[in-house]
Amino acid sequence: MTKIFKTNKILSSDNLILIGNKKSDFSEYIKTKEQNDFIKERITAEKTQIIVNQYERHVFIQLTEEKEDYTIHRKHEELRKASVKLSQSINSLGIASISLINCGAETADVIALTEGLVLSNYQFLKYFDRRTCTFQLPVFKVLH
Predict the structure, then answer these.
(1) Closest-CA residue to 100 (of 36, 112, 121, 77)
(2) Which domains does the chain possess?
(3) Predicted TM-score (pTM) above 0.70
């Protein structure tokens, strides 16, 4: 079962999801110039998901897309879909706890991403053998 907590403190060892846009400043959570350059390079290449391995933790960056033909509902649905890929990456790395930080996205975008992450980790355990569980994100913290 995934538990969601509201927090106001992030530890240096916490795995992170940073949500923002192309103009967001992620430097508070990115440690080196090389990592910052890598992020800028990926943003220039129009990537919306970026993963930075900082050895003691992973930082996942999710960029919101502003497209002219997107309604607000379509934008949020795209964020929910993106969160499935994010969830797969998180689970493949065996991460048990992660913190979500808003770095300039709209509050509704953060809610849509959170919703997608939680729903993508839902399992129908009542109907399956618990040993077949593949998704394990028991603790999800949202910085406020």
Answers:
(1) 112
(2) 3-143 (3.40.220.10)
(3) yes
* DSSP-assigned states of every residue in the chain: --EEEEES---TT--EEEEE-TT---TTT--SHHHHHHHHHHHHTT-SEEEEE-SS-EEEEEEPP--TT--HHHHHHHHHHHHHHHHHHHHHTT--EEEEEESS--HHHHHHHHHHHHHHT---GGGS-GGG------EEEEE-
Q: Scanning the structure block, which residue is given the tokens 């992660």?
A: 98
**In tens digits, what is the pLDDT along the chain, a chain of 144 residues?**
677 778 888 888 899 999 999 999 999 999 899 999 999 999 999 999 999 999 899 999 999 987 778 888 989 999 999 999 999 899 889 888 899 999 999 999 999 999 898 888 776 666 666 555 555 656 667 775
- How far from chain centre, in Å, is Cα 119? 13
Within 10 angstroms of residue 94's Cβ, the number of other Cβ atoms is 7
CB 83 within 8 A of CB 39: no
Q: Fill in the amino acid letter for 112.
A: A
